[in-house]
Amino acid sequence: MIDTHSHIYLDAFKEDRQEMLDRAAEAGLTDILMPAIDFDSLHAMDKLVHNRIRLHKMAGVHPCEINNSRCNLEASLLAACAGKEIVAVGETGLDYYWSKDFVEEQKISLRRHCSVAKTLGKPIVLHNRDATDDLLKIISEEQDGRLTGVWHCFNGSADEGKKAIDLGLFLGIGGVLTFKNAGVDKSVKELPAEFMILETDAPYLTPAPHRGKRNEPAYTALVAEKLAEVTGMGIEEVVRITSLNARRLFPLIEVKQG
Question: Which residues are 3's β-sheet partners?
Answer without folding.
Answer: 32
